[in-house]
TrEMBL record:
Keywords: Mitochondrion, Ribonucleoprotein, Ribosomal protein. This is Small ribosomal subunit protein uS2m. Required for mitoribosome formation and stability, and mitochondrial translation. GO terms for cellular component: mitochondrial inner membrane; mitochondrial small ribosomal subunit.
Amino acid sequence: MVKIKNLFEAGVHFGHTEGTLDNRMKQYLYGNRLGHLIIDLNHTKRLLQQALNVTAHISYRGGVILFLCQSPLNCLTVENCAIECGEFAHTRYWRDGMFTNSSRIFKSETRLPDLCIVLNTLSSTSKNNSGQHSVLSDAAKMLIPTIAIVDTDANPNIVTYPIPGNDDTPSAINLYCDLFKNVILKAKKIRKEILDKNKTLL
C-alpha cells in the first residue's frame, strides 16, 4: 500500500535545516543536501505501514479516531479527511487537560478517542517548553495511543507510533490523509460485512 515512489513525489523526505535538528531524529536521517536534512524513506515506509495497520485494527473494532492538526495551511485537508471516513478532527488551539480533565471542561461524561493521529507534532501555540502538540502528553497520561508525523525538528520519543516525515507540505499531508482514510474505510466495510452476516445467522 505504501510506496517509496509516492512518498518521494509528495516530498515526505524533505526535513528542516541542519540547525533545527532534534538529535533523537538522527536515526531516521538519510543525509543532508544544501543545508537541508533528508529523511530516509525506508524508515518512513516501514513505520507508516505499522501505523496504518494499527489504525485499521482500531477502526475494525469500532474505535473512535481523532485527527489533529494546527497548521492553518493543512487544517481543511485534515477536517475533510475525518469527515469522509466518519471520524473526528480537532484543528484549533488545544486546551491542556481536554483528555485528563474532560468531565470538568465539557461539564459531562466524555467519550475519549481510542487513537489520536497527529499530522504536525510541533505546535506554535503550545504552552509547554518543548513546543510539542499538547495532545501528546494528554494522551500519554490517559494511555491513548498516538500516531504522529515527526519532522526532523521534533521529538519522536513521546509518540506511540512515530512516522518520520515532512509535516508541513500540503502534498505530504494529502498523502498521509488519503492513506489513513482508505484503511479506515476498508476496515469499517469489513466490520459491517461481518456484522451483517452475523445478523442473518441469528
